Amino acid sequence: MTKSALVIGGGIAGIQASLDLADRDIHVYLVERLPTIGGTMSRLDKTFPTNDCSACILSPKMADCIGHPNITTLTFHEVMKVEGKAGDFKVTLKSKARYVDPESCTACGDCVGKCPTKGISDEFEYGLSTRRAIYIPHAQAVPRVAIIDAANCRMIQNGKCGVCAKICQKKAINYEDKDKEVVVEVGSIIAAPGLKAWDANIATEYGYGRFKNVVTALEFERMMCASGPASGHIAVPTSGEEPKKIAFIQCCGSRSEKSGWKKYCSSVCCMYATKQAIITKEHLNVEEDIFFMDIRSYGKEFEAYIERAQREYGIKMRRSARVSNIEEDPKTKKLTINYTNSKGDPASGEYDIAVLSIGLNPPEGAKEIADKLGIELNEYGFCKTTVYKPLETTKPGIFVTGAFAAPKDIPTSVAEASGSAAKAGAYIVDSKFVPCAPKEYPKEKDVEGKEPRIGIWVCHCGTNIGSVVSVPEVSKYAASLPNVIFARESKYACAQDCLSEISAAIKEHDLNRVVVASCTPRTHEPLFREACRDGGLNKYLFNMANIRDQCSWIHMHSAEAATVKAKDLLRMAVAKAAFLEPLVGSEIPVTKAAAIIGGGITGMTAALDIAAQGIPVHIFEKEKELGGFALKFRHKEDGKDVAEFIKELISKIEGNKNITVHKKTVVRDIPGFVGNFKVIADGCGEIPVGAVLFATGAAQYKPTEYGYGSDKKVMTTLELEDALASGKFSGKNVVFLQCVGSRNDTVKYCSRVCCAGSLRNAIQIKMKNPTVSVAIVHKDIRTYGFREELYNKASSLGVKFLRYCESDAPTYDGKAVKAYDSILGTDVEIQADTLVLAAGITPLREEKEELAKMVKVPISKDGFFYEAHQKLRPVDFATEGVYTAGSAHWPKFMDECIAQGSGAAARMLTTISKSKLVSEGIVAVSNQNQCDGCGICVGCCDYNAISIVCGDDGRPRSEVNPGLCKGCGSCVASCPAGAMEQRGFRNKQIIAEIDALFEGA
Amino acid sequence: MSEFEPKIVVFCCNWCSYAGADGAGVARLQMPPNFRIIRTMCSARVDPEFILRSLAKGADGVVVLGCHPADCHYIGGNYRARRRIALIRMVIEQYGFDPKRLKLEWVSASEGEKFQKTLTDFVSTIKELGPTPLQEGS
C-alpha cells in the first residue's frame, strides 16, 4: 500500500515541503500545533532584501496548501507518538478541541463581536493587542475559522454564557467538543517545527518588560505591519507620538557566554534589523542607529542592502562592542543607551524606542518532539545533522528542514524544505507506488453557440461589503442586466454552502457563465472556478467583480458612491462574462529525464536524489572528472575528510544505473521548453530531458594583490590547506587577510565562506603548535549560525583579531602587514612569514552568461544566476523547467550546497515525475488569417514563445507555443494587424468592459 | 451645479498594481470613488486602443499601473508599457486631450499607500483640468 508523508509544522518550510511532495502526487499530512498555518513568516511585515510584503507572498502558498487535493492540513493537531521505522511509521496525533466546527464556520466574525470575555492577550500580535475568548487567529489565517480559547471561555469553564452559540447562524459552536486521537500511517516524516524567539526578559540590563519603550524585533514587526494592531503607524508606546530616534540593539540573546544567552549567531538579525530600519524610514522622518558587533550580510545581495541602508536611508551603523545597558528617564520615558563607541570609549545616546534584535531559539518543546520522533538534538537544542547529511536526522526516514536544524532565513528554509521533500519522497515512491488520483469532475457542458446565461452572486462578506455598499440594491440592479438569469445575495459567497449552491445552480438553471461580486480574484478566483468545475462548467467561464478590496474598503465613508461603483464594476464584469469562452490548457508531454550541468557536490547530490526515484539523469561536466571545486579541499568536516566524502559520492554516481555522466563535455545549446528540452553537447548529440539544473558552481578569486604569485610567502586559503595537509607548512608568524577579492569597489558582495575558512585553518595551526603567532585581519567576522564556535575557539586559542576600516586597506611590504586597528585607534604592524589571502568566490560570469542565453534566464548584477524569487523560489528560474543550486546561485558552504542540491532535485521532480503537464489556458494565440508575419510580436516576447513559421499559403505567419507562453499579452498589444489575441483577455472582452462602464449606466 | 466628479479608467496589471490596489483595501486606505479598475495580466497588455476607446467613450482620465522597473512578473512587460504610453500621450495630445489625462505609474503589490496617493492625486489633477474636452464640444 502506498503510504503518505507526514510534515510536522505548518510554517513556510513545512508548507513548501508539503507542496513539493503533493505536486508529485504523494499524499501529505501537514500537522500544525497552532490553529492556523503560516508560522513565523505570517507575522512578519516585510522580508529582506526585496522588501516584499510577507503576507502577500506567503498567502498564496497557504491557499495552495489548504486547497491542494493531495494535502490533508491538520491544524491544531499535535504529534503524540511515533512508532515503526522508515517506510512504515505509525503516528498518533491529537486533534485538539476547537469548540467550533471548522466545516460550518464561515468566519463571519459575529461571535467574536459579541463575546463578552475581552482583554485576552493576542498571541498573534505578541500581546500588542487583545482578543476575545472566541477569536479568529488573524486576518490571513488558514483555515480562516473561529476557535474558542477554552481556558478563558465562561461557558466552558462555568457553564454560564453561551452567547456565541446563540449568535452563530451556522450552529458551528460545540461546547462539548473533546480532544480526539487520530492515527496515520506514513512512509517518511519531515520535522519542520520552526523556531522560538529568544526571551528578551533574560536581558535584564536592557529593561525589557520594565521599560515600555523597549520592544522586541518581533513586536516591532507587528507595530510596522499595515495589518498589525496599529495599522502600521509606528508610535512610541508610552506617548503614542511619532518616534524621532530609534535604536536597534543587535545580538540580543546571541553570541554571548552570559547565562541564558546563546553562544551561536542567530544568522538573520543583522538583516532583519536593517530591513526594519529601512521600512520605518520609508514611513517616518526618524533617526535610526543600529548597534552591532559584526554586520553579517553574507547572503545574496545582502551587502548591497546594508550599503543602501546607509547611503540612501541615512541609517547609522554603530559598530561597537555590545550595548552594555539601557536606562529610562522616569519622567519622559526616553531611553539612554550606554555603549562602547568604535574607538573603545564609553558613550551614550538618547532614544525614543529601542528595538531588541532577539535571536532564534529551538522551537517550543523541541526536546519532546525529538523524544517522540526518536531523534537527537545538538548541544544547542536544535536538531542534530551533519555537514554531509544536512537534511537527515539521526533516525532514518525522518528529515529536518527550516530553523529546527539551525537559525536560518526564509530562502534557505524554502530550499531545504524542497530538499527534505526529495529525501522523504524516496521512502514513498517505489515500484509499487500509486500516485494520488486526480480529482474527478463532471463533464463540462458545451456552450458553443449558446446565448449567455449568467448567474450572479453578490457577497455581503459579513459586513465588509454590506455595511458600505447596498448589496440588495446592487443585486436587484444586476438582475436587470442583459443575459442575466438571476442575481442572488450571499452572506459569504466563499462559504461552502454558497459554493455548493453555485455548482447546483449551474445545472438547475442551465447557467453558462457565473459572476461573483465579492473580494479579489487574486485570492478567491480559484475557489469559485473550482465550484464552476464541480457544476460542470469550464472554469474560464467565471468572472469576478472586486467590490470589497477595491470598493467598500476604500470608500467607507461614501456609501452612495460606493454602491454606484459596485454597480458599474458588476456591469463591466457581466459585459466581459458574456464574451468569455471555455479554454483548455494544452497538454504538454514530459520527457522523464533530467539534465544536470556541473558535476560538483551540488550536481551530484541532485542527481542521486532524482535517480533514487527511478528517473534517468544526465550529468554534464566540463572537466575530466567529477567533484568540482571541492576536489581542492584538504580539510575535514565532522571528522571526515572532504576528499573521502567526494570519493564516495563519485562512486555512488558511477554505480547508479540511472545516471549517465558526460565528462569533458561542454553544453552548446538547450533548445525547448518545460518538459521538452534537448541538451546539445559536444559528442553527445541531442539528449532529450524534461528539466535542467544549472549547478555550475563558482571559483576562487585569483588575487593580484599583496605580491601574490611573486612572493612565495603569500598564498591563498586553498594553498595553505595543501601545505598543511602535506605537512610542508612551517610558518611561525601567520597572518590571514580577509576580504581579498570581496567587499571592495569592484566585487561588492561578501563571499560568505572565507571567514570560516580562515578560522578553521587558524585553529588547525594553533592546535598543532600553540607557539605559532596567528592573526586574522578582517572587516567583520561573519561566522553565522553555529560557525560562531570557530570564532570562539580561535579566540580562546590565542588567535589575534584585528579589524581594519573599509577605507583603510592593510598593506604588506614583504615582511609585515600594516593595518590601522580601528579599536586601538593606531597603526599596527604584524610580522608575517606567511600571508594567507582569504580569496573570495568569483562567479565565472562568462560561463554562466553562455548557459543563461540558451534558456533565457537572468544573471544577477554580481554575476550569479538570478532565481525566480529571492525569498520563496530560491532554486527555480522564472523560466519553467530550469533550476539552479549551489554556488552557481551564490557562494555557499558545503552543507548548504548539499541541501540546495536536494532542493533543486525536488523541484525538478515536480515536473519530471509526471508524464504530462497542462499549460495555463490564458495564452496568446495568433489568427492565421489576419497575421502577415511582420514579426513585431516575436521581439515583444521575453519567453521565446513566438516564432515565424511558413503558413499554408507559403507566406510567413506567427505561431505561439502554448507551452512557453506565460500569458502576459504584450504581443497582443503590439500587433499592428490585430491578429494576435489573448485568451481570457481578448480585445473584445476588455473593450466590452470599457464600453459597459460608459454606456450601460 | 454639483461639483464635477470625474470618471477615470485604471488599468492594473495582475501581479503588482492590482495586488497593490487590493493592499490599499486591506489597509483600509480611503480615496475618492471616481475610478474603475480593469485588470490585465501585464501592463504591456494595455493596447493603445483601450486607452483611446476609454477617452472616446468619455473617460476624463486614464491611469495605467504596472510593476516597478525590473520587477515585472513577465521580465520586461512594464518597459514596453512605458514606451507605448509615451507615444500614446503624444497621440492624445494631437486629438486635443491634455496629455496629463493619461498617467503611467509603478505600484508594487506592497504599495497600497502609493496606490492611494497616485489615485488621489490623479483625481485632483483631473478635477483641475475639468471634464473631458469631448463633452465640452458636444
Structural description of this entry:
- The complex is a heterodimer of chains A (1001) and B (138).
- Chain A contains 25 helices and 54 strands.
- By secondary structure, chain A is α/β, with parallel strands linked by helices.
- Chain A folds into 7 domains: 187 residues, FAD/NAD(P)-binding domain (3-Layer(bba) Sandwich); 82 residues, Alpha-Beta Plaits (2-Layer Sandwich); 166 residues, FAD/NAD(P)-binding domain, CATH 3.50.50.60; 125 residues, Rossmann fold, CATH 3.40.50; 185 residues, FAD/NAD(P)-binding domain (3-Layer(bba) Sandwich); 140 residues, FAD/NAD(P)-binding domain; 59 residues, Alpha-Beta Plaits, CATH 3.30.70.20.
- In chain A, a hairpin with a 6-residue loop joins strand 18 and strand 19.
- The longest helix of chain A is centred in the middle third of the chain and has 20 residues.
- Chain A is globular.
- Chain A starts with a strand and ends with a helix.
- Chain B has 138 residues and is an alpha/beta fold.
- A 4-stranded parallel sheet of chain B has the order 2-1-3-4, with helices on both faces.
- The longest helix of chain B is centred in the middle third of the chain and has 18 residues.
- Chain B is globular.
- The interface between A and B is large, with 56 and 48 residues.
